[in-house]
Design brief:
binds nicotinamide-adenine-dinucleotide
């Protein structure tokens, strides 16, 4: 088996994780890094030594176009783990040169740009992979199979709570964090669009059918978006969506919190409730009282997703875990959450406390009553806005409202 020959765009941020992973695969003869680039290549000299680029014969460039012009004939795969607003042009460059693309999630957060990318990808020899981490987890795939097999009865709804504290300097780590737009184009970076996007995509995966690799189609969305941090976008999302199949999905997501990170995916079926906590365990709580526990094995998302995509590139399996078209429900849901919410409301000042973590030397926000609000929303559909967070819930937005998306984002920016 000859190694998959790879080019990686970028060296810092999450691109560094791809470098670490490919270096491991290269040691085992499964991959070979041909080239990489970064406009800041000079500031990664230590990393380049650690990754032993000189010994491995890796060509280093300052610009991705120069890299592709020089190396495209030698590449089986182009990895794109760069700022979200650069994904479309870099994906396009790969496809036009006939190189399959491992594109980091989210592919884009603009539904129109996604449609262009889907059209372009159809012309490619091999479909691009969108790197949502968790779709290929074996217990997840097995549970989806059981849901589709009808063992738990009809799927009625699902919910996701994900409270992942992020300090103020998280939003200063690069020039696009927390931005709604840059250079007149949509960025829309947020907890829903970026760090928690994996989980939201997982929820749509639970609600998809009848095939294994299927995602629920969005019919309508209501939302309340908030911000605590000094950013353009939202750091807290309360979202309720209905799917075309009639299931209700509730999401309560925030970076405006302190303490331990928490997340839980729950699927409500006629005969059982499935609770899946990435990195911990899955549980099936049968309505007749039985509880089935499924321990989750340690899972190296990036390593396993690379190998999974490589198998597809070698012709050993029929499709990548998530294609650009599979990402459509996620992008539509995210865009309609903005359309429905209409504005990003500041939290009432009386509820907001700044917290200094002296050990980490970092500053967090905490919103009084966040945990209670999340539980009331997830379990009863009680919206926090009218109940004390000082805003109305957005009106229902449907895919027919997507043409209002760009104006909504511009209005959110103007109101900032
Ligand atoms: N799968 C995951 O678990 C996971 C985790 C974190 C981030 N991500 C995703 O990875 C992507 C990158 O996020 P990040 O926070 O690392 O971003 P980042 O801003 O840190 O950028 C990553 C790299 O891209 C480089 N870069 C920027 N402009 C470039 C250009 N014009 N040409 C070449 N390289 C360029 C940067 O210098 C940096 O090295 C995003 O899509 C993000 O959502 C995925």
């Amino acid at each position: 088996m000859s190694p998959i020959r790879i080019g990686i765009i970028g060296m810092g941020g999450f691109a560094a994780w791809h470098h670490n992973t490919i270096a491991r695969l290269e040691e085992r003869g499964q991959a070979r890094l041909i080239c990489t680039c970064d406009p800041q290549a000079g500031s990664f000299t230590l990393e380049q030594q650690n990754w032993r680029f000189a010994e491995r014969g890796v060509a280093v460039f300052g610009d991705y176009k120069a890299m592709l012009a020089a190396c495209h004939r030698d590449l089986d795969l182009l990895v794109v783990p760069t700022p979200i607003n650069l994904h479309a042009e870099m994906h396009r460059a790969g496809v036009e040169l006939g190189i399959p693309v491992y594109l980091e999630k989210p592919p884009t957060l603009d539904y129109l740009e996604l449609e262009e990318m889907i059209t372009r990808d159809r012309q490619a020899r091999r479909a691009s992979l969108v790197g949502f981490n968790f779709i290929i987890e074996k217990p997840r795939l097995a549970l989806k199979q059981r849901i589709l097999g009808g063992e738990f009865g009809a799927t009625q709804g699902a919910s996701l709570m994900a409270l992942w504290p992020r300090p103020a300097d998280y939003f200063r780590r690069n020039n696009w964090a927390g931005r709604l737009m840059m250079d007149g184009r949509v960025v829309l970076d947020s907890c829903m669009g970026n760090a928690l996007a994996h989980f939201v995509h997982n929820m749509l995966f639970w609600l998809g059918g009848p095939e294994q690799f299927s995602w629920g189609e969005i019919a309508g969305v209501r939302a309340e978006l908030y911000r605590a941090h000094a950013i353009e976008g939202a750091d807290t999302f309360f979202v309720e969506a209905t799917t075309a199949a009639g299931a209700t999905l509730r999401l309560a997501l925030s970076h405006a919190c302190a303490g331990q990170s928490q997340h839980a995916e729950t699927v409500q079926c006629e005969k059982a409730e499935i609770r899946y906590i990435v990195g911990q365990q899955a549980e099936i709580r049968w309505r007749d009282g039985r509880i089935e526990r499924l321990p989750l094995e340690p899972f190296d998302g990036l390593h396993d997703n690379h190998l999974d995509y490589h198998r597809y590139l070698r012709g050993e399996q029929s499709r990548p875990a998530t294609t650009l078209a599979d990402s459509r429900p996620f992008v539509v849901l995210n865009d309609l959450a903005h359309v429905s919410s209409g504005r990003i409301a500041p939290f009432p000042a009386a509820l907001l406390t700044g917290l200094r973590d002296e050990k980490e030397q970092k500053d967090y926000f905490n919103v009084a009553g966040m945990q209670r609000a999340v539980e009331a929303f997830i379990t009863q559909g009680a919206w926090p806005g009218p109940a004390g967070w000082g805003r109305d819930t957005g009106a229902r937005a449907t895919p027919a409202d997507l043409p209002r998306f760009h104006d909504t984002v511009r209005a959110m920016l103007a109101a900032r």
